[in-house]
């Protein structure tokens, strides 16, 4: 039986949700770029203070911390702390042949949790809201690897 | 022959060790949360200074760097620099059909190295101890991808 | 049909490029170590100021930010924002059975983009050069997951 294959509906759920989550990570990088360009601030490399197409009016203050730009970097870091773990956990989860409905609930649930976390973080909602969605995503990944360990070891 | 499948003992070793390492990454996030709550410090977002269930006595000093909390974030960063690479390297390693004993030595060795690194970092051991376990984990991943390249290209 | 398998030429392209990219991530860690040792600076943990084999002349200034060392950490962070996403996107891409030439162009293109990005970053080239290679790598990953979504959903 080949589970890691298009044709296995659980793998298809994984492929769709993993692709969306990869897209989320990549677009977060572009959000940082957009915010750097829009605010003309939040640069991190001394050589970026050179005059050029991207930086038309360089000044040393551009290397100072900008919450507007750094927020996108913090969101990115939070993605990196959660999404690669989901990508691996999801693949392992497919390999232990779970029920389709369970895979759908967990994987689409993770996508929902991370998009809601993004929205709460970007709009500076209070800690409790952001933490709720972080917790949801985190518990889903923890459940998935627990399920994998249980399946393989029992 | 389908190697990426429960039933292949090498894949099972990978599934167990990868699941443990994903769990390690996720729990590091919760260690940061625990340390923020316990010390009431080490916050990184201005909006977290609002009064709420999580933050009952907000004050601006909570945004200052706290080594206690930041240590957990540095440990997390070190995880992110090593564990996703292991997760990918391990899957590729399974795909080139290595000897079971070799997969066991390398994969359980990596888990051991990272848990020992965690313990040394959390308890602030001298650099030499932390560096030893970092090196062990890093060399295992480097060996695995070298083995993969050799198998595929030769 | 088992696509995630040595013997499928597209999977072999993935295995080679993914292994190279894992190696890139791991070696970036060693570049940071090398730069810390060479410059005797850029440490991040208070306990590393203890006298020992690695640190023979400790002084508090070693904990200050060093652009020489931090540059390698920033390069590492940029890797983590791109390479794990590529590793997952590439595997999903293999699973939707793309044309071999397309996989070769995209995957070797990504490796080229990241090595060129590394060279531009390490030698402090102007923003425009670094940004060009970042963009190339980013668009390749975004294309791959778009292709996966299109294949699975259509």
List keywords for this structure.
154 residues; homotrimer; Four Helix Bundle (Hemerythrin (Met), subunit A); mainly alpha
Query: What is the count of helical runs of chain A?
Result: 4
Give the mean pLDDT of chain A. Answer: 95
**Number of domains as seen in the coordinates of chain A:** 1
CA distance, first residue to last residue of chain A: 20 Å
Per the CATH scheme, the topology name of chain A is: Four Helix Bundle (Hemerythrin (Met), subunit A)
Helix content of chain A: over 70%
Largest sheet of chain A: none
The CATH superfamily label of chain A reads: Membrane associated eicosanoid/glutathione metabolism-like domain
Rg for CA atoms of chain A: 19 Å
The unreliable regions of chain A are none
> How many individual β-strands of chain A?
0
State the order of secondary-structure elements of chain A, H for helix, E for strand. Answer: HHHH
Largest interface: A-B, 37 and 35 residues
Summarize the structure.
By secondary structure, chain A is mainly α. Chain A has 4 helices and no strands. The two termini of chain A are 20 Å apart.
Topology:
The structure is a homotrimer of 154-residue chains.
Chain A: H1 9-39, H2 67-95, H3 100-122, H4 127-153
Helix pairs in contact in A: 1-2, 1-3, 2-3, 2-4, 3-4
How does this model look, in words?
3 copies of one chain form a homotrimer. The first copy, chain A, starts with 8 loop residues before the first helix and ends with a helix. The longest helix of chain A is centred in the first third of the chain and has 31 residues, at 9-39. The first copy, chain A, contains 4 helices and no strands. In chain A, helix 1 packs parallel to helix 3 (100-122), helix 2 packs antiparallel against helix 3 and helix 3 runs antiparallel to helix 4 (127-153). Chain A has helices at 9-39, 67-95, 100-122, 127-153. Chain A has one domain: Four Helix Bundle (Hemerythrin (Met), subunit A), CATH 1.20.120. Chain A is elongated. The first copy, chain A, is an all-alpha fold and 154 residues long. Helices cover 71% and strands 0% of the residues of chain A. The interface between A and C is large, with 35 and 37 residues.
């Amino acid at each position: 039986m080949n589970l890691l294959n298009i044709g296995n509906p659980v793998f298809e759920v994984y492929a769709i949700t993993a692709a969306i989550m990869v897209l989320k990570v990549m677009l977060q990088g572009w959000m940082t770029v957009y915010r750097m360009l829009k605010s003309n601030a939040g640069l991190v490399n001394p050589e970026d203070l050179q005059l050029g197409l991207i930086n038309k009016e360089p000044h040393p203050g551009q290397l100072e911390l900008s919450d507007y730009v750094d927020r996108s970097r913090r969101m990115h870091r939070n993605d990196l702390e959660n999404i690669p773990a989901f990508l691996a956990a999801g693949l392992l989860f497919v390999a232990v042949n779970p029920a389709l409905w369970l895979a759908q609930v967990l994987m689409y649930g993770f996508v929902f949790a991370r998009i809601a976390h993004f929205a709460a973080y970007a709009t500076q909602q209070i800690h409790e809201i952001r933490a709720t969605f972080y917790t949801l995503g985190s518990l889903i990944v923890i459940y998935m690897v627990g399920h994998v360990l249980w399946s393989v070891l029992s």
